[in-house]
Amino acid sequence: MAAAQRSAGTTFRRSLLNPAALGYLAVVAAVWAWIAVDTLLVTHADASMAGVWGFFVTAPTSFLFVSLPGPLPFVGVAVGALVQALALGAAYRWATGRPRGHGRASHA
What we know:
Distance between the termini: 48 Å
Largest sheet: none
Number of strands: 0
Helix content: 55-70%
Order of helices and strands: HHHH
Strand content: under 5%
Structural class: mainly alpha
Radius of gyration: 19 Å
């Protein structure tokens, strides 16, 4: 049982700690930093729509949480960012982990 948990933890870490997943999380963090600056430091005549970009960069997972009450939509943003980062990381590992076909033996 412990080996299965360690394997799942290793898979989780490898899927999350690679250039694709970390780059995506950096984009999400940059968008939320921009939203914070826009909300706190910029005056608007009307309400700003900057906050919707936080949901767009973590879609479609975050859209599942939008209709929930209270702070749960923002939990959905965090869950959405994590789910998308894991998916991108797994796709990156799959794409870079396969042999490219270089050095195949010829059967001629």
